[in-house]
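tool_log.txt
---
The assistant was asked to compare two proteins side by side. It first ran the structure predictor on the initial sequence, then on the second. Raw inputs and outputs are pasted verbatim so the downstream comparison step can read them without reformatting.
(1)
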Amino acid sequence: MDYVPGPHQRLFKLFDEFRSFVGERVNTHKASLDPNCPRDFIDAFLIKIEEGQKNGDTIFTEESMLQSTVGLFFGGTGSVSHTLCFGLLVLLKFPEIEAKVHEEIDSVIGRSRSPGMADRSKMPYTDAVIHEIQRFLALAPIGFPHAVARDVHLRQYVIPKGTTIFPVLKSVLYDSREFPNPEQFNPGHFLDENGAFKKSDFFMPFSAGKRICLGEGLARMEFFLILTAILQNFTLKPIVEPKDIDIIPASSSVGNHPKPYQLRVLCR
């Protein structure tokens, strides 16, 4: 594909620029590395590289560190930004939902401080809205492929060792037995009859099993903090009538994402 003209060439160029950026950060970390006090992922990886060189272990290399660091950025920033953009679109479509979130933010957090993760357990409605945004979007409707490590018996089937499995996550996220009317956006899917947050084993936007997305915890934290900070300070206003807003996600080879839209934000 390097020799075929097309829009993917711009993607390759941007990827090379990003690798160069990460490479510069790696060099900066090398110059100030303290093995007794690692500051972040790159420091920890550099320490492992040094240990591997002493032990003759070639698993940890600078190239694998570069690829892993780039992968963390690509895997985290795109997924969180797409989900956040979709969440704002949903709130434009349903101003009554936004109003309830505003009310909960004012009650629990107020206006004098920034949101914190400790607030989430006290905000069941906001938490339910966030879960429903992720469920409805189904960012990765077909999860990343995995291979079974041994022969697996599943109901009346036998999955031979080494078989590649593609988990169809949307079939679970849109299961009508767990989520009545799954094609409709409804935060009530994650609330019990008393308005308390209700967990669901069917909620798996980050894939399933032991190989679940490594960034799940970070993504959950980012999405909650960023969305609540925006709604703490602003009211969202659509450019068109809410009834004309289309929240059905667009699909690509990568996954689902919100369709392009415009909005206004007003200070609260």
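(2)
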Amino acid sequence: MRILGIHGVGNFRAAPSPDQAAAQLADIWASALSHSGPHEPRHAHYSREEVAVAYYADLLRREGSQGPGNLDSLDDFERDLVALWLDASGLPEATAAGRATAPLRQALAGLAKTRGLGQPATEWFVAICFREVGAYLRGPAREQVRSRVAEALVVHRPTTVIAHSLGSIVAYETLWEHPELSVELLVTLGSPLALPHAVFPRLQPAPVDEKGQRPPGVACWVNLADPGDLVAIPPRGVQRCFKDVQEPRNQPIHAFDFHRAVNYLASSQLRTLLQKYA
């Protein structure tokens, strides 16, 4: 099995080159995929020869006076995306604050309290997430990112693509742009592909009759999403909004850190799926 990972938000690395950053991430992904819990039997070990990662975080980097994890660094477009995400969260406190003129921190405080999350960590994650999502959805970065990922697909010729978070949007659009690239299995993890208003209607190609399609070169598409993952909303949205997607039920990934890539990669659900296609 040859696996190509496509990372999500928060993966910028100050490496000397994108290739070296990709190699660093590939080490992390191979280790997580090979992980066994303390009470689990040993399973497949994935080597660096089998696992590669397409790195693109440097292309979304925007220099500014505020740190990338600071809410004040978000521009109007990025703040609008946050408000749309809060509306889709389904939490009354977050929805009311997201639609009104209340400060963004007030809305996030309500969300963090309701979900039992720390407010500073929630603010940091939201700032990182929507700054990078916003950078991808507009401007030249979108084509640049897809070009780099397409190059990785050509070089590594994976049988399986595993795409996490924002990487699932990148994977979807890149595979549609290059239907000649065949993939046996596409696995999306913690995907915001179905996020209404903010992501779903902005996809390229655009959904037809409110339905997206499986990329033509993909033989099988499986989506895994922890029920508590605040990025993968609305719940079971990918299966409802896209045709020919499998989405197993009851997929808890982690009690608290339910969006982190390594927790998805080390999950028993993904392990079973990869064994099926090995």
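---
observation on (2): The CA atoms of residues 211 and 241 lie 5 Å apart. The chain has two domains: 3-60+142-277, 71-137.
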